Amino acid sequence: MSFKLMDVSSEYAKDARLSPQDVKTLSDWLETEPHLPKATELQLILFLQSCYYDIEAAKKAIDNFFTVRTQCPEIFGAPTIETLKRELTVCSINFLPEKTPEGYVVVVMKMIDTRPENYNCVNQINLMDSIMMLYLHQHGTCNGIVSISDMQGISFGHMTRMNLGAIKKQLFYVQEGAPLRIKGMHHINIVPFTDKLMAMVKPFMKKELTDLLYFHNSMEGLYKHVPKKILPKEYGGDAPSLEFLHEQSCKNVLENMEFFKWLDSFKRNIKTPTNSHFYKMPHFRVETNVPQSKIPADLPQRLCQIVANSLSKQLSYCCVTVIGDVNMCWGGTSEPAAQATLMSIGSLGIEPNKKHAKILYEILCKELGIAKDRMYIHFNSAPPSEVGYNGTTFHDIFGK
User: Fold this and answer.
1) Residue 282 annotated among the catalytic residues of the structure
2) Which parts of the sequence belong to the CRAL-TRIO domain (predicted)?
3) Cα–Cα distance, 157 to 308 (Å, whole number)
4) Angle at the Cα of 337 (from 335 to 343), degrees rounded to 5?
5) Do the two domains 73-264 and 282-398 of this chain adopt the same fold?
6) Is the pTM of this model over 0.85?
């Protein structure tokens, strides 16, 4: 390879919690997953560490990471040098030389060319991911990443050029696939329509991510989270200027074009069935003759979490409805009974349905006092074109 990556021995040396045996477990697992590419040892380390050494969580992240990158090449594919050169004149994305006291890496993003007509949302997402992946492969793991978005120069015209479909895919990728520990997303030089921007993207963010959003009306607010001295000169710190950092970042990116082609070669086999959960969104509806007053008020919330876990799906997309007092007869009697429907885009089938049924019957029979032989659960695997969301369909959002 014509580019240099972080040495894995250094990763093991700096992190006592990083187990070579756990990394081997992930490597052995990949051998049993024909739809996934054979990730490098460094990549497995990045996933395992970012998932706080949880092997099962790392498996899901690896599956999602390579699946999304393969199925969304316009967002996560290898950029051309012409595209990179152009996009680097529009926005600067710079990692600061020093970390926070907690060991968090800080990345500062700011528009250079503020003309809306030169802003390409998809290309900028691609640039951001390209720079982030290059950094991780060059520097290895870190305790976390903190972003600072300088909104100076952003106008309403930029907002009209946002691609919500691409942003949705990016946020899924960041939350469910990318080997990142996000510790804070800070915004400075706030624009008047920030609330409108957030209203557009928050539906695609899990609560864990929205809790990391910060909006500062002054630099003093930022200093409480990121030490002033490690910030660039423009923000009152001792670090080199944004202009200097951007020049260094551009040089590093353009000298490593082979890296982006190499990373893009790790493709998921789209013809092989996958356990990826990129396209799933469930709705679980229960109707029962049990009086509503006897149904625990928090049952829908608990079922939401159970459904999300069973389908390995974001909780923010799960919907549960529990309807009591239904005029229902089962076998000629009005003894407690129920019928339910679990609708999802994918993740339903002969074997998965057995697992879902076992989990759902256990909680419903216990909480509603219903015998297992007095309830049906109908599993409905819906095509993306037949499920609407956010003013369109999932077919339109995912392009499939």
Assistant:
1) yes
2) 77-243
3) 37
4) 170
5) no
6) no
